[in-house]
Amino acid sequence: MLRPRDRHAFTLIELLVVIAIIALLIGILLPSLGKAREAGRAVKCLSNQRQIGVALGLYAESYKEYIPRESGVSETLAPNGQAQVPAWYVNANNRALFNITWAFNLRPFLDSRAIASRGDGGVDDNYANADYYRDPSRPKDPHNIHYVNNGLAFRLVGGVPTATDISKPPTPIFRYTRPSVTAYLTCFTDDPSGVRWGNNYNAGNDELRISIFYDMWRISSVNGTASSDPTTAQRVAVKRHGNGANILYMDTHASATPGTVVANPATWDDGDYK
Predict the structure, then answer these.
(1) 93 falls within a domain
(2) Which of 128, 132, 141, 78 is nearest to 102 (CA)?
(3) Which of 45, 125, 181, 221 lies at a CB distance of 3.0 to 4.6 Å from 135, suitable for a disulfide?
């Protein structure tokens, strides 16, 4: 009579070898998976910036080649007290108080629900539903806008372009001498202490006012030479995606860019000197 074969159980050493092999494979694969996930996030961020670039081009076509820059008041109001294009003016009590910023102004070209003729943007959501303004690589926090744009006004001093503490008003794109290499927008830095979002999303701020905090008009916002004060500290994320960040350029194309280029003020110099 044949007896069934004796079952062979794993020895302790064999189990330890299997566990060690599995641990080794996990150690090899996890970094690759992490890099793949980050690459996917970077591509999504780049796609968002390209959508914004399309909106920027449509905006320029709609408003005599003007594109939104900084939201300053005194430098950007027309002689009659009205903000320069585009803005709304119904009467003295129902008007834009300053040039409307990029996030507010471009949203109607990205979202059919949005309008740019009243402070809440027609959506009244603090940009919570503006997924096209979010970078999936950015640490989660209450910020709903993850990009900052170029509101720097440069002057040619001694042959070296430097910026003053004066913001750049909306300007027609034909004035830019090198749009393909001049940054319009890039990834916004982290805000671990919540100082910025606590200010930006104050209960009294509507969509128009929230958007003004995502412009840059100081050199220190680019190269980080000032203090940790959120109004003067660096605002660009030079290592958002590996050793660089994505940039949307003035000619509306977007590409991955090394951090050293992102933080270089010359990258933001539009060549339009006054």
Answers:
(1) yes
(2) 132
(3) 45
User: Which tens digits make up the pLDDT trace of 191-208?
Assistant: 988 888 887 888 888 898
Neighbours of 109 (CB within 10 A): 18
Query: Per the confidence metrics, is the pTM higher than 0.85?
Result: no
Alpha carbons 132 and 197: distance in angstroms, whole number: 19
Residue 133 has pLDDT above 90, yes or no: yes
User: Which tokens belong to 24?
Assistant: 């080794």
Contact 196, 139 (CB under 8 A): no
Select from 157, 165, 189, 158 the least CA-distant residue to 262: 189
Query: Residue 17 domain-assigned?
Result: no
Query: Residue 216's domain spans which residues?
Result: 43-268
Most confident of 31-35, 95-99, 156-160, 205-209: 205-209
DSSP 214: G
The residue type found at 160 is V
Asked if residue 22 belongs to a domain, the reply is no
Q: Which two tokens stand for residue 244?
A: 């660089």
Residue 31 lies in a domain: no
Q: How many CB atoms lie within 10 A of CB 215?
A: 25
